[in-house]
Design a protein that fits this description.
alpha+beta; four-stranded antiparallel β-sheet; about 25% helix; single chain; six-stranded antiparallel β-sheet
């Protein structure tokens, strides 16, 4: 009897795992304001005074201290066997520059009133290949938002619906990597890159450090400040003045 019971439990466990994995699928919501769930509706309500709030049916969702943002959006929904997980954009609460990619949370809904909220994490890349499922886990590919980063610099985080935990399984390239990469650049090379990007102020000849110009000039100033033994020429002087602040 005990042997039969143990065998039945093992079989049911395997069956449950297979069903859980087979059931899971990913739906792109494209910055939606609402989504129909198996457990009701997930809805973003707007307020000009206090900003956006997220609701599960009529229950407000507490996104946490750093999660209540003026503007929210639903990026993706993942259907698991026991729950549904939503990737919500806007978790930074306005405390971080919008160029930062760390402004998403995963809200997992498991009943008409029950939900859990993950830690603040990187937002996935906005394309169809950014999310995938592996052994019942959600994998999300995210990009390095630094203006000087390589276009191929991606990380991956893993979401476990059973524990509601997010784990970075592939890290972005480090700041030290990029400092080493730019160490042997020349001031002329960096200045000419800013010229090609159209980010030189014609009246002062300095690098423009507006928000849209390489994120306050970070694209060029990070490279300049990474130089190991730069030649002190006219380009060096211009970059030094540009990056003084």
């Amino acid at each position: 009897m005990n042997y039969f019971f143990r065998a039945s439990c093992i079989y049911m466990g395997i069956f449950y795992s297979l069903v859980s994995f087979a059931y899971a699928d990913i739906i792109t919501l494209n910055f939606a304001e609402s989504s129909v769930s198996r457990f009701g509706n997930l809805t973003i309500k707007h307020s000009n005074e206090s900003g956006d709030k997220l609701y599960l049916n009529s229950t407000p969702i507490d996104l946490g201290r750093e999660g209540n943002s003026y503007t929210l959006a639903l990026l993706d929904k993942v259907n698991f066997a026991q729950s549904e997980a939503y990737i919500v954009l806007g978790g930074s609460g306005g405390t971080m520059d919008m160029d930062s990619n760390i402004q998403c949370k995963v809200v997992q809904v498991s009943s008409v009133k029950q939900y859990t909220v993950s830690v603040l994490t990187y937002c996935p890349v906005f394309n169809s290949s950014s999310l995938s499922l592996e052994s019942g886990m959600l994998l999300a590919k995210f990009s390095n938002s630094a203006s000087y980063a390589e276009s191929t610099d991606f990380g991956i985080w893993q979401f476990d619906p059973s524990s509601n935990r997010i784990k970075i399984v592939q890290k972005l390239k480090s700041e030290a990597y990029y400092k080493h990469k730019f160490a042997n650049y020349t001031p002329a090379q960096i200045y000419q890159e800013a010229q090609q990007d159209g980010n030189i102020d014609p009246s002062t000849k300095l690098v423009s450090t507006c928000h849209i110009c390489g994120m306050y000039g970070q694209k060029y100033c990070f490279k300049f400040q990474s130089l190991a033994n730069p030649v002190h020429d006219s380009y060096y002087d211009l970059l030094q003045k540009s990056c003084a602040n």
